[in-house]
């Protein structure tokens, strides 16, 4: 691997490789942000559904008492 790195022209090592690394890091970062955002979105939706279900249960119990 070291031979391959040393065989590259200096402009490739100093310009092209860092740009490729930055693009890959940027894509990985936004992939992680997207996954975390999706998980948080699913969690919020699940909490809303549980809250609505709890409200319905409470209202049905109150209606059954009347």
In short:
This protein is mostly helical and 66 residues long.
Topology of this protein?
Elements: H1 2-7, H2 10-65
Your description of this structure?
This protein has 66 residues and is mainly alpha-helical. The chain has one domain (2-65). It is built from 2 helices and no strands. It has helices at residues 2-7, 10-65. The protein is rod-shaped, with a radius of gyration of 27 Å. The relative contact order is 0.05.
Which labels suit this protein?
66 residues; mainly alpha; membrane; transmembrane; DUF5326 family protein; Uncharacterised_SCO3924; transmembrane helix
* Strands, count: 0
Main sheet summary: none
Count of folded domains: 1
Report the radius of gyration as a whole number of Å.
27 Å
**Number of distinct helices:** 2
Q: Strand fraction band?
A: under 5%
CA-CA gap between termini: 79 Å
Helix content range: over 70%
Low-confidence stretches are none
Order of helices and strands: HH
The dominant shape is rod-shaped
Pfam family, one: DUF5326
Organism: Kitasatospora indigofera
Keywords: Membrane, Transmembrane, Transmembrane helix
Transmembrane segments: 12-33, 39-60
């Amino acid at each position: 691997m070291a031979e391959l790195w040393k065989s590259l022209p200096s402009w490739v090592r100093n310009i092209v490789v860092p740009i490729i690394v930055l693009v890959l890091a940027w894509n990985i970062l936004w992939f992680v942000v997207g996954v975390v955002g999706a998980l948080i979105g699913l969690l919020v939706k699940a909490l809303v559904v549980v809250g609505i279900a709890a409200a319905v249960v409470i209202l049905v119990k109150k209606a059954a008492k009347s």
